[in-house]
Design the sequence.
């Protein structure tokens, strides 16, 4: 199974992925205190290559591929209600293999398999484009350190990329 993972406190999340030749919508949580995986509510859409980020204790899934087409939808999981909200504004284009991080209290979505070259900012349930990233990049890792956002590695679709830095 191929999917995205992210960690909040001591819980590891497995979100979507690819299994038996198709994209899946499953969502599971591993609780390190009980050493158990638990199934939670599935997403409304099947997603592989999905971007995942946590902002204000809510998990967001961004884009991905449903096995037929690229997605621009965003879903938000509320662990208190075990429900997904689809009321989120979509990204400006359909994309998979995005990188996601939190920077200055906002969720940033970087790159994607369809050649997106701008960052997308999620703030107050809206998507705004801000052209900060200067390179097309898919499958990168992202991190924030000392007030800078770093895009690490990935590919432009033809060759591997080095690290990029934005303030």
Sequence:
């Amino acid at each position: 199974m191929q999917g995205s993972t992210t960690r909040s406190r001591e819980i590891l999340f497995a979100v979507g992925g690819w299994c038996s030749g198709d994209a899946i919508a499953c969502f599971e949580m591993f609780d390190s205190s009980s050493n158990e995986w638990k199934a939670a509510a599935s997403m409304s859409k099947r997603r592989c290559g999905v971007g995942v980020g946590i902002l204000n204790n809510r998990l967001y899934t961004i884009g991905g591929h449903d096995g037929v087409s690229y997605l621009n939808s965003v879903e938000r999981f509320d662990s208190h209600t075990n429900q997904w909200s689809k009321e989120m504004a979509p990204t400006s284009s359909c994309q998979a293999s995005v990188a996601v991080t939190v920077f200055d209290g906002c969720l940033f979505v970087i790159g994607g398999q369809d050649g997106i070259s701008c960052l997308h900012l999620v703030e107050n349930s809206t998507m705004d484009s801000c052209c900060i990233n200067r390179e097309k990049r898919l499958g990168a890792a992202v991190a924030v350190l000392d007030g800078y956002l770093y895009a690490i590695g990935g590919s432009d679709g033809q060759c591997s990329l080095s690290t990029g830095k934005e303030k």
Residues 77 and 84 are 4 Å apart (CA to CA). Residues 115-127 have pLDDT under 50 and may be disordered. The chain has one domain: 2-166.
